[in-house]
Design goal:
Layout: E1 3-9, E2 12-25, E3 30-38, H1 41-46, E4 53-59, H2 66-73, E5 92-93
Antiparallel strand pairs: 1-2, 1-5, 2-3, 3-4
Length: about 90
C-alpha cells in the first residue's frame, strides 16, 4: 500500500509516497510514522534508498494497522477558517 500525490521537489516531479518506518511509543501512547517520497513506484522498487524526502507523522494511537495508518495520513486538518491544510487529504491509494 502507498499513496499517490504529485509534487515538485527541487525540480523533480515525484508522486509515490510509502511508509518506510514506524515506531510505537507506549510511554507517550503515540505512533510515529516516516512517509517517504519517491519519484515513482518504479524508482521505489528499483532501490529502496531512492528516497527524495521524508515527512514524519505522529498519531495518538500506537496500535493502528497499515490501512488505518494511511487513512489517518489522509484525514483533513482544518485551520481556523475551516480550510483543509493537509496536503495528503486528496492523495490516491495505490
Amino acid at each position: 500500500m502507498a499513496l499517490k500525490l504529485k509534487i515538485d521537489y527541487c525540480g523533480i516531479v515525484a508522486d509515490y509516497w510509502k511508509i518506510i518506518n514506524m515506531r510505537s511509543d507506549y510511554r507517550t501512547n503515540t505512533l510515529i510514522l516516516d512517509l517517504a517520497l519517491y519519484a515513482n513506484q518504479e524508482a521505489r522498487e528499483k532501490n529502496i534508498k531512492n528516497v527524495l524526502l521524508v515527512r514524519q507523522f505522529v498519531f495518538s494511537s500506537p496500535d493502528m494497522d497499515r490501512e488505518e495508518q494511511y487513512k489517518q495520513i489522509k484525514e483533513p486538518i482544518l485551520d481556523d477558517k475551516k480550510k483543509n491544510i493537509n496536503e495528503f487529504a486528496n492523495a490516491e491509494d495505490c
